[in-house]
Amino acid sequence: xxxxxxxxxxxxxxxxxxxxxxxxVVRRLRDAGAEVRVVMTPAATRFVTPLTLQAVSGQDVRVAxxxxxxxxxxxxxxxxxWCDALVVAPASADFIARLRAGLADDxxxxxxxxxxxxxxxxxxxxxxxWQHPATRENLDVLVARGATVCGxxxxxxxxxxxxxxxxxESEAIxxxxxxxxxxxxxxxxxxxxxxxxTREALDPVRYISNHSSGKMGYxxxxxxxxxxxxxxxxxxxxRLAAPAGVTLVGVESANDMLAAVNDALAACDIFIATAAVAxxxxxxxxxxxIKRDGATRTLELVPNPDILANVAARDDAPFTVGFAAETNxxxxxARAKLERKRIDMIAANHVGGExxxxxxxxxxxxLWNNGRAPLARASKPALAxxxxxxxxxxxxxxxxxxxxx
Length: 405
Ligand code: C5P
What we know:
This protein is an alpha/beta fold.
């Protein structure tokens, strides 16, 4: 575990029963060497007193946004600038929603909005609230903006229910806070990721495409960025915003994507192809809108370039990672693809059930030459982080750089 010596952490305590664990979080963060200040939401003061947190932090605890004496001592903007990282523990469903919306009408939310420091979120709530699409979507947005989520754990809850939503133990929060300051496993490396569908024009208003949402690729790009890489995301049309700190290059067709990839490949260390590239395109696209005339039409299709295989075949090929979506015999087909395309690693998943193209969760089996790692069902951002750790390990092994990048 990395030390938190001399790190300035602002602990934001929001209103939930897990707030009673906040004093222990403070104590352990301080044991790890951090200087800790605490801001509470008004609701949090119903579960644990400011006096308790003042005693364990050794600092005044702030609650109110409009407290002129406290603002004079250290204003909310100064607090936001003072900290090296923000730790929200516990993070209630309401507080997560406020962070996502960028609200600033209480001190804790205002400090988060005013700070550029890394944000660690330890959710704690009833399991139904955790599983609600609103909460899942709010967290996905925060992760895409660069936040780190720690937990929640599963188990029996204060409300009498059982399921995911318990705040993780203090040790896990301390470890996650320390990891915010550790150099990423891809620090100093350049990563190019393809994502989303491609659109193959039939005429100026029509195209052939597929249902790819781009979620997995955007999550992979965000995870690579969080691991310290310089990331270029080359994406077909999606409804997603570029992850924070990632350079987005928007493309339409497979040929556009190939050209953008070739442009981005100079000094690229790792290439990850998550895009659902159309296998075929119309032999020719009509310059004008094709008119309906009642006649039967035949569409001539020609194969698109295989972008991943093209990259892997280069003399100066980076470490290449592909995806394989299969409906059956997933692992056998994926391994055949790994060999045929001569790539370094492939992440295979089963499509056709509830998981796959537009779902929020996924599960993967990652294969490489004489190795495999199954990654159990999880959200796409969580899976992407695990995948990136595997990529980092295999990248270093393939480049013979052992334990450090
Ligand atoms: O051959 P298949 O389409 O199943 O291979 C999937 C993998 O190859 C994915 O990583 C995808 O991004 C990549 N691919 C590509 N260019 C294509 C087709 C697939 O880069 N034309």
